[in-house]
Amino acid sequence: SQQGEEDPQALSIQEGENATMNCSYKTSINNLQWYRQNSGRGLVHLILIRSNEREKHSGRLRVTLDTSKKSSSLLITASRAADTASYFCATDEWGAQKLVFGQGTRLTINP
Amino acid sequence: DAGVTQSPTHLIKTRGQQVTLRCSPKSGHDTVSWYQQALGQGPQFIFQYYEEEERQRGNFPDRFSGHQFPNYSSELNVNALLLGDSALYLCASSWGQGAGYTFGSGTRLTVV
């Protein structure tokens, strides 16, 4: 079963603009992770935010986590054509030993 | 430092046949998880192996089975293939709990 609900399902922006994707989940979590997938290939781990963290940065990526609302957002600043991909949030529940993925957001960066 | 290696890359099988997919984890990782990703969907957890035993299992039928070897590599076996088993099968390795996972590039299985 999919826990995460991602919004929007698809996003198309111009190069240089910022892209924001949102994720909601249902249960208590240990951490939440964001992954990128290019053209149906393997997933690339982008960033992990623990349940006791509210915000985390990595390069052009900024992730926020609101455990009271059970939601997270991924912001990609100054987007590039190479950022075109599908982005997935995945929750890691306490003791569950597995990731539960959302449906993903398809991001297209137009040159 | 090699990441997660999966083989084969692509596979075409006939309905009713059996298939074995292979995964070598990232160096230093001792846990292997398998996921199924249907077209346009997010990955779904199949099972996880640690210390050569299945530690956790998702909502998949017994036709899906696995194995982990002493060198931490793993196999995913699917028996009596159905058309609906066509998907990208992803292997992920990790060390410990609560850490990020490293995914392989996947095996694209097509059942005809």
Secondary structure elements and pairings:
The complex is a heterodimer of chains A (111) and B (112).
Chain A lengths: L4 E3 L2 E5 L4 E6 L6 E7 L5 E8 L4 E4 L2 E6 L4 E6 L8 E8 L6 E3 L3 E6 L1
Parallel strand pairs in A: 2-11
Antiparallel strand pairs in A: 1-3, 3-8, 4-5, 4-9, 6-7, 7-8, 9-10, 9-11
Chain B lengths: L4 E3 L2 E4 L5 E6 L6 E7 L6 E7 L2 E5 L6 E5 L5 E5 L8 E8 L7 E2 L3 E5 L1
Parallel strand pairs in B: 2-11
Antiparallel strand pairs in B: 1-3, 3-8, 4-5, 4-9, 5-6, 7-8, 9-10, 9-11
Strand content of chain B: over 45%
Please give the alpha-carbon distance between the first and last residues of chain A: 36 Å
* Outline of chain B: globular
Total beta-strand segments of chain A:
11
Mean pLDDT of chain A: 93
| Low-confidence residue ranges of chain B | none
Uncertain runs of chain A are none
Q: How many strand units of chain B? A: 11
Largest sheet of chain B: 7 strands, mixed
Oligomer: heterodimer
Query: Tell me, what's the shape of chain A?
Result: globular
% residues in beta strands of chain A: over 45%
Radius of gyration of chain A, in Å, reads 13 Å
User: From the helix content, strand content and strand pairing of chain B, which structural class follows?
Assistant: mainly beta
> How many separate helices of chain B?
0
| Class derived from helix and strand content of chain A | mainly beta
What is the ordering of alpha helices and beta strands of chain A?
EEEEEEEEEEE
Largest sheet of chain A: 6 strands, mixed
